[in-house]
Amino acid sequence: MTSLPQPRDGEIHVFCIDLTRQLPELSRFTQLLSPDETARATRLKIDSVKKLYTAGRGILRIILGAYLGVEPGRVMIATGEHGKPYLADAAKGIRFNLSHSRDVLVLAVSSALEVGIDIESIDADKPLQEMAKLAFSHHDQHYLLSLPTPQRYITSFYRCWVRTEACLKASGRGFSPLDASIAPSSFSEEKDLLTVCCNQTNWHILDLPVPPGYCAALAVEAGIPPQIVRVSEESLKALL
Ligand SMILES: CC(C)(COP(=O)(O)OP(=O)(O)OC[C@H]1O[C@@H](n2cnc3c(N)ncnc32)[C@H](O)[C@@H]1OP(=O)(O)O)[C@@H](O)C(=O)NCCC(=O)NCCS
What we know:
Layout lengths: L10 E8 L7 H5 L4 H9 L3 H22 L8 E3 L5 E3 L6 E8 L2 E8 L3 E7 L6 H8 L2 H8 L4 H22 L21 E6 L2 E8 L5 E8 L5 E4 L2 H7 L1
Parallel strand pairs: 1-10
Antiparallel strand pairs: 1-5, 2-3, 4-5, 6-9, 7-8, 8-9
Helix pairs in contact: 2-3
Bound molecules: coenzyme A.
The site of coenzyme A (COA) has 18 residues, from strand 4, strand 6 and helix 6.
């Protein structure tokens, strides 16, 4: 079994995986799922969605197993009150969070620091201004409306969206559109590293490089300066 070195203090290992390229190995991934995961896959009606979910879960288990030094099928994934998955085996302090959009899955892994990650495929046909009214602070809405071109609006909207969602996912709480605890924060600033307060905790927010047509961000508990370590496709291939 291949093993992965534990992330050092402040390091966040980030995986970006094109799930369609992994589908030839689907039958192997299927065998790694827990009974709950298998039941969830069975409930998914759309075949392509079922396949992507199964591949994603199998790959998640292989990666987490490599950090923990256990067989993928034996990784114990529990779920928090609001649905955030975590490792029941707290021995190594590994934290993780994942997000998927269309065919792409992103996964963040850290030691001890809580993380949240979000990826979205960019879709200019969605009612972005309506969505901004529901989800963003007045400050962020004003900023977006001040942008000179529709293209800048779209790009900044998605950056603001994934940053907000990464932050909410890091805190592990569900999302409610009028959550006053996030309204004062600004997620639209043109900075590489933001620090925002969300649900009484300070979070560092970083934008992530992802394939064209997608937008992604990472939130990590503030403290040590965060350092993103991108896991290369070669390392991933060796692992899978
Ligand atoms: C999970 C949630 C927090 C995000 O959902 P999403 O953006 O549709 O989906 P993502 O692909 O980014 O994330 C889903 C993954 O996050 C994880 N997750 C589930 N609940 C979570 C929670 N409360 N906190 C953190 N992570 C969670 C799971 O691993 C899940 O994938 P899985 O079910 O395959 O294991 C969703 O419950 C939610 O509340 N969405 C609100 C969307 C919204 O309106 N956002 C506006 C703010 S900008």
